[in-house]
User: What shape does this take?
Amino acid sequence: MAGNAVYLVDRGWHTEIGLPVAALSGRLAVFREIFPGARTVLFGYGKKTFFTAPASSIEEYLIGPFPGPAVVQVFAMTTTPDRAYGPGAVVVLPMRRAETDRLSDFIGRDLETGRDGRPRLVAVGHRPESLFYAARSRYTLFHTCNGWVAQALGRAGLPVSDAGVVFAGQVMARAAPLACRPAGR
Assistant: This one.
């Protein structure tokens, strides 16, 4: 299953999508060069001011849900998420190549590009394998990290709806039944 597996990772309040490096296509293929030696690349979405500089006061938490520019965090792993995170934190989704291509396309289209045609880097995370890129879409109360992940899975062709998604648990619950399906069904 690993060749056609996509990983949905529950990070508590936030979900991310993990793609095997071999499945990165289109605009996402550049991450093979950016992260040589990576096995899996995780993509997470969030509000720029909140995601690149975590809140340190109650006031910052209160303004977190307000609309603003968004970023996509790209995190390179030398293993797979199901091996890196604890039980129950990862749903492994079997997918056909056409589905992973559509998923790559959705994520790639949301990455703002610079003059060189590459994703526009806006910040480096706490570790060199964590980079933040400008997103074309905006973060709002109705377009959050978890809704973006559910939307991405739906655009890939999976029967996952982003309607009413607010919490990480909602995305995980909607995707969990798909872990047992044959790829492309």
